[in-house]
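Hi X.,

You mentioned you wanted examples for the new student's onboarding notes, showing what a folding record looks like when two proteins sit in one file. Here is a clean example. The first protein comes first, with its sequence line followed by its structure tokens.
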Amino acid sequence: MTTKTIHANSQSQKPSSTLDVGVIRWLLGRFRNGCIDHNEYDGLVEHLHDCRRKVQVDLKEWRAEVLGEAAEAGKSYYRRQSKDDD
């Protein structure tokens, strides 16, 4: 089985989300060919939950890094509203 990865927009910064195309194709094939049993479904759901947790951790780390860099540069991460924006 050949696996390819799809990365987020190359111009964007961290985090880079990665999908295993082979796994997606396998899952689609399973659903097209009929029902999957409960154990396979539970495994899929657990895998998706694990992926979500990893992405959340990556986002928290990325946000902390960006806030740290902004603090070092003496800038605010958040856009300040001017009186003209109101």
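Then the second protein repeats the pattern, sequence line and then tokens:
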Amino acid sequence: MASGKLGDTTRLNTDEPSVERHFEGVEVLEWNKQLTARVFIVCLFIGSFMTILLMKLNIVTAFILTGTIPPYLLSLFILKTWTIILDTIGILKNPITRQETVVMHGCLVGYFSIVYYGGFSNALLGMSSLVAKQFEQGRGGNNWTTIRPGWMIMYLFLVNFIGLFTLIPVAKILILRLRLTYPSGCNVSHFINVIHMPTEALHKRFYTSISPGQIAIGLICPQIVSISYLIGGFISWGIIWPIFKSKEGIWYPLGKAQTLHGLYGYKILLTTAVLLGEGLFHVSVILFKGFHDTYLKKKQKGFIVPLHEHHHRHNTDASMMANLSYDDRLRTKMFLKGHIPTPITIGGFLLTGTISAVAIPFIFPQVEPIHIAVAYIIAPVLNFCNAYGVGVSDFSFAPGYGRFAIFLFGSWIGLSQGGVLGSLVASSVVVAVMLPATDLIQNLKLAYMTLTSPRSLLIGQAIGTAMGCVFGPIVFYYYYNLPDFGQPDSEYPIYGGKTYRALAIAATQGSEGLPKHALLFAVIFFFISLALNIVKELSKSMNLGLHPYIPYPVAMAIPFYLSANFSFDVGVGSLILYVWNRVDRRSAGLNVPTVASGLFAGDAFWSLVAALLYNQVPPVCVRFFSREDYMNLENNLKKYPL
């Protein structure tokens, strides 16, 4: 991407709220100059330190850090401190740029994704002999493996890079055409913009305090998304799940509600069906429009394209750009300049997929190349469905797809052929492909919001992933060899590994292990999701004006899987946004993203502190009484001599 200065080619309406206006005159370097040694040195040290901490939290609590904000802020603090010191003594000539900060964030996300999604607390742990010997079924030698850092490092290198290539071809569609929000990426971008904003902008109170992060999602997402959350919470926890709970002992065994045989099985299948329905609809629409555009180009090359069609397409594109704000026009231009060519991404996907499909069976003989190939064939479609859902609702269902993969591949391979271990391998492959891709699309939204080249961001995340593939298994192996590791009454009870192995054993029973009518309800919910999207698209194309009021099925599905309580927090954020817009729309347009980023960061910090305090015994217990209660307590104590 050629270097340039902001504001050179795009004119700003003075009445229009703008973030990029504060960066006018700041040079944007070429993409290769955004990859600096100081960024990767800091990422190596901070990533290694945080991996030791987060690995323990992940094993003990199955803890997933919200948006990786705290380690990012820690690394940013150290990097800023380092640059200030060097600048003070006159060594540092170039100050840290926000593009370097974004690359650093992408590198750390790639590093920490190995801790979160590598399966150390669930799938890989469920493959171990330590967990296998605690179950009566699946204890044969072909259903467990010995934990060694060597094969784990090789395995993680094989599966964690293919996901980086699956969503890049559709990034322009998700970010530029559909204009999906990606709340986490937006929140991080606003945080970075505020930190790097000139001092005079900060003096205008362009900052915020911290508070729970679900409110931040309500501030960032469109109001129809918040309404969709509420509708989904009411339908699921107010109507459907109470009905299904009343069928315990009839449709599924008593006491099995939290297993794949019971209510949990319904949650997995129904949520998956809704997400697949909406995702596959948009995949079909994109393919149809792609073929239609190809057809028009061929007609144009043959000089037979009708004049009105050509002018219509040109006017539509010009109208779309004209309707964008100053910031979005500038960001779109810079994003397209640094976009990664599609042949490179397709070639990278085919190369990494072929290598891993051939090599993984040498590590796990229970898995055949056809199993890995099938997982990689369906991965791009699942990735798009998941990325679309994240863009709308900020929730990734990739772990749910991973559990669904346990069922599919466990029933396919069978117990006697090593289906327990094979299904866990397939699950970890699906998750390893999907979640790094979801992180990347969030980071690409971050790159879009900060004028960072997608190329430098991709390279940064790939380097961070490589760091994590080496250091993560070494740290895990250290914890695995602790004397009390895996003991129920120890600090490391490894419930995640036991849960995943129990799911894998149940999956080898095939569809007989599912609760009654689960597949039927899944099909019904799939077509309901499809129908809502068809109605929304028809309303949009026919200019009926109904599409802004039709809820998103993907947002409605999230309370089905989690709970309904967080939807109220999102609703509070949406209500705050509505009131703020009514009072001062200009102030809301400029400051709401910054407020949301502060709320998001505060919630992430508290999540980290709460996890660190997990299972800790307080040294002192304190309780407050009213004066009347205290006097009664004192009188009662006087009755007993000391």
